[in-house]
Every structure is written in structure tokens, then in C-alpha cells.
Amino acid sequence: MHTDVLQNIYGHAKITLLSDNMVLNGKNLQLISLYLVAGAITGIMLTPFVHPDIIINSFATEPKLWFCFLMSVLIMAIGWCLFTCAETTININIPDILLLAGLLNMVFRKFFLSIPFFDDKFIIYICVVVLYFAFKFIIHFADTRQIRKLTNAATVFVFVILLLSCCYGVLQLTDVISSNSPFFKLTGHFENPAWYANYLISLVPFCIVVYSYHPVRPNFRWYLKYSAFIIVFIAVLVLFTTYARAAWIGLFVSTIFIIWSLYRQKLTTRLHKLLIVGMLCFISIGAGFFLFKFKPQSSLGRLTIWKISCNIIADHPFTGVGYGNFEYLYDRYQASYFANNVATGQELELADITRYPYNIFLQILCEQGLIGFILFCSFLYFLIKGTLNKNTINDYSIFWSVAALASMIAIITCGMFSYPFDIIPVSFFFYIYGGILSGYMRGQKQVLLKIDQRFLKILGLFFLLSAGFLFAITNSKFSANKKWKEISMLYSDEVHLSKIYPVLKDDVFFMDYYSRELLYEKKYKELIERLNASDHILMYPSFYLDLAAAYDAIGQYQNAESAFKTACFMIPNRFKSKYLWAKFYLDHQQYAKAYQLSTAIMSMKIKILSIEIV
Questions:
Q1: What are the backbone angles phi and psi of residue 333, rounded to the nearest 5°?
Q2: DSSP state letter for 115
């Protein structure tokens, strides 16, 4: 990111960063703010590569903490720029208004939920919205020369991070470096090949557009095209070895869009368009059938997930269960489904812990209800419509419009069968692309807002305070996670864990660890109190097995039976839950129930042979 691009944004004819009568070091403060913005954005782009093993569950937690820390730096720099800004005029278009309306809908829903207001997912969503508007105004206020520099810098940066990501995967395939998961050979710099594939699909279309559209000078064009071709070729090979079908579909659809963008001027007759649409429909049906049969168990498992997700929508049709709450509530709905319905043997066999509905639109319906769904779909519609219908400004406008829209199409298509918005790098790339498209929507319907200096100072102060708040909570979580790892390695006991409990009480992994420690130390009442206080995150059968053991130990047998039932039906193909439930009945001389469960256990198929089963 070049600071002269950012300086032009805040030094535009309508925006003056620093007044002439400011103190002598005002210019230095301006430059420091601009370098902070550039450095923070660069660091944010490197989020996927951050997972040093210094805390427990580093793959899920460390990139999140890194992202939030750098966002606090970015928000602080933006806040300072706003605080020192003179009267200005900004434009807000329809996609911007819809995005803000969606955020306000989430905020309103939060007031009616018995969960923390600023949970991790909601904080990250606010951050990506800030990135959306940051890139919108970068594009909107930058001139042609600065756009050229920004485009060149972005191209080189994407080339480097995509090539590094692909090389990481190739080294894993050739056994030069080990995988990050015991279950998969290829995971890239993630813990799961699906995360890796989602990340690749957010960058590959950009490189394809660089090969096709990049408005670089003629003497460098062939170097750029060859580089783009080689990187795309390697990325596609790696992408296919992930066996992530959703990413394959996303790549296919985005490539079709890029080809259509190249030749749309030549498709003048209705016959041409009908032939192309017919051919695409035929290819899509054939490809869909092949991909379904390629991994039929996975496909059938997702159909079951979609069916149970519809029960969540039926219970909360208009407002949803709250942003980020799907993963905490789904497994309870799954337990209720298997307990109250006659499920097929295949559904029982395929059921497992589920954190995503494997469809972003279904997830939005579950979490934000019909209101949030309409707002999000309207946001996409007006953003795409405004991009396709806008007047061409220059070659860079064409390049960014096609590159950003192709990448967003890839992410959305992949999200029809996956969970890209739950992967931080993919989520912020999506909204960065959206901000770029919004920045180029000049001449569209928009609202011009004239903001005086007093309001800008208030807004700047709000951003500065928000940055301090974000930094404080991020730092406290990082310290608590480091302490947790130290405790687990040196002196794992409830006394030390209770000191970090207030900070990590909404962390699923910590509470799972903490509940086992309380059970081991026979602090049953405290275990029940802690888990019931964190009821909104009890998504694993192990939580209910610990609760059942604690209730059994203090003589609350009815509560223990209820907890065993939830644990068993949450994942009905697990042996351990049914075994412990049968043992509970046997210990309390309920032999008929114990026999019934024992018979059910003996008839179960073994998915993965383990010592516990033997």
C-alpha cells in the first residue's frame, strides 16, 4: 500500500488533514497516521500466515487475535485522520446503506439475546465492514496515477501471497513439510483443506483477471501475463488436490464470468446468448451430478444439515438466532431432530458435530432471519448491478470491476456449499472487493453527505476510543490464552484455570478443557454452575456428558438422564455417550433401560476403530 494514495484520500480538495495553524509536528503526525494505515492493511493481508504455536488452539485463535490487533491499529489511524480533518463531503450509495442496515439489524437483535454483545464473530464482522468503507474511500478519492500505483502494488502482493500459499501446499504434498492435521495430507497454512481451498478461491480469480485485463505498460505486459499464468496453473493444481468441490464450482463459475466479460461486446444476437446459456446449463447439470457422486457421503450429510437448519429457520423466521450463533445451537437442534423423528440409518451414520450449514444464504437465514437475508441479497444485487451498469472511467476501472466482481462471485458460489464467511481471510477479502466496487460506483444513485468539522472530531474520537477498546479486549484474550497454555503444560488445576475463566468463559475450547478439570477435581456444583452460565456455547456432547456425571454425583438423577439423552442424540453414532448412559442405568439398577441401550450399541456400525470401542 503506497502512502501517497492514502495521503491523496485525506488531502483531497474536499478533505484537509491538518490545518495550517497546527503545531510544528503536525506533518509528522500525518505521515505517521498514513504509515500506520498502510502497515496495518499490509499486516491484515498476512493474517492467514499467522499461527505460531504460542497458545492453545493456535490455528483458530492466533489469526483472529492478530487480525483484531491490526484492525485496532487501522481504526486508530483512521480515527486520528478524521479527528484532524476539516469539513468534507462524502458519498453513500445504495449498497453502503444496505450494508449498514444489515449491521444495525445485527446490533438490534443482540439486545434480545442472553449472550455477550461483543463476541468474537461480531467484532470481526464490524472490522470487515470498516475495511469495506476504508477501501471504498481509498478508491473513490485516489486519482489515476495513484490508482495505477495501487493496482501494481496489489498485483505484486497477491502474486506473492498466493504463490507462497501454493508452495506451502506443494511441499506438503511432496512430504517435505508435514500437514497441520493428522487426518489430511494437504491443509496449506490452515488446519483443514476446506479452509485452504476457500482461501485460494478468493485470490485465484484476481490472478486470472490480471492475465486477461491488467492495464500495465506494453513492455511489462508479457512478464505479467506469464507470471499470472504460472501462478494460476500451480494454484489450480493445488486446488484440485484439496478435493474441495465447492471451491471447484466457485472457480468454474468465476472463470465463466471472466470469459463473458471479455466477449460480452461480441454476444450481440439472442441466438448466441441462448446457445451459451444452454451449454452452461448442460455443463452445470453434468458437473453437479459428477460432484455429488464424487463424494456421496459428504453430499448426503449436507442434505441432512440443510434439513435440520430449516427447523432453526422455522422457529426464528424473521430475526434469526443472532449473528454467529448457528454453531452453538445447531447441535441441539440435531439432538432434538434425532430424538423426536424417525431418522434414516444413513442420517444417523453421517451425523457429526456441525459448526456451519455449508451454505452462506442458509446461514444468514438462520442467524439474521428474513430481514437480514433480504438486506444481504439486496446489497449483492445493487452492488453487482451498479458495477455492470456503470460508465467506464478508465482501464483501471475495468480491471478492478472485473477482478473484484469475479472474486466475489467465486466466494459466493463456493459459499453455496461451504463456509467462506467463517474464514477470516476470505471474509475480509470479500468485503474489500465489495468496497472497491462501491468506490467505483460513480454516477450511480447516491447520497451526498456534507460533514462539518465538529462532527468529524466526534466521529474521530469515537474511532479512537473503539480502537482502544478493541486493543484492550484483544490483549486480554491473548494474555489469557498464553496463560492457559502455560497452565496446561506446568500445573493444570482448577485454581489456576479459574483466574482466566472470566476472560475465556465464552471460548468453547477453553470451557471444554475447564469442565473436564472441574470434573476431575470433583467440584461438581461449580462445574454445573459454570456450564449453565455458558449455556449458549454448549455445542459438544462432552459438555453434556460432564454435566450428566456432575448431576449423577450430587444425586440429581433426572437432570443427569436428560444430559445423557442430549449428548447421545447430538451425535447418535458415537459409542461413548451411549455406553456411559447405559452404565448410568446399570449403576442405578434400571436394567431394562440398560439392556435396551446395550442392544442398540451392539447393533451400531463402527466408523473409526479405537481403543475405547474395543
A1: -65, -35
A2: S
What is the spatial distance between Cα 607 and Cα 235, in angstroms, rounded to a whole number?
A: 33
CA separation for the pair 204, 469 (Å, rounded) = 36
Question: How many CA atoms are closer than 13 Å to the CA of 267, on its beta-carbon side?
Answer: 14
pLDDT digits (tens, 9 = 90+) for 339-384: 887 677 788 888 888 899 999 999 999 999 999 999 999 999 999 9
Q: Which helix (H) or strand (E) holds 91?
A: strand 88-93
Q: What is the DSSP string of 459-485?
A: HHHHHHHHHHHHHHHHHHHHHHHHHHH
pLDDT, residue 16, reads 33
Q: C-alpha angle 198/202/204, rounded to 5°? A: 110
End-to-end CA distance of the chain: 58
Query: How far is residue 579's CA from residue 24's CA, in Å, rounded to a whole number?
Result: 75
**Strand, coil or helix: 449:** strand
Q: Are 151 and 396 in contact (CB under 8 A)?
A: yes
Chain length of the chain: 614
pLDDT of residue 522: 93
415, amino acid identity: G
Who's near 478: CB < 8 A, 6+ residues apart? 55, 65, 69
Cell numbers placing 588: 442405578
Mean pLDDT in runs of 10 for the chain (614 residues)? 45 35 44 70 78 68 88 90 81 93 93 83 95 91 86 91 93 90 89 93 95 77 88 95 92 90 71 65 66 76 92 94 91 90 79 91 96 96 86 79 94 93 94 94 73 88 95 93 85 81 91 92 94 86 94 95 93 89 93 90 70 51
Q: Spell 283-298 as b/e; 16+ CB within 10 A means b.
A: eeeeeeeebeeeeeee
SS3 labels along 125-179: HHHHHHHHHHHHHHHHHCCHHHHHHHHHHHHHHHHHHHHHHHHHHHHHHCCCCCC
Q: CB-based contacts of 359: which residues, under 8 Å, 6+ apart? A: 306, 309, 415, 416, 417
From CA 545, how far away is CA 187, in angstroms rounded?
Answer: 31
Beta bridge partners of 450: 89
Parallel, antiparallel or unpaired: strands 446-451 and 88-93: antiparallel
The crossing angle, in degrees rounded to 10, of helices 58-83 and 120-141 is 50
| Stated pTM of the model | 0.90
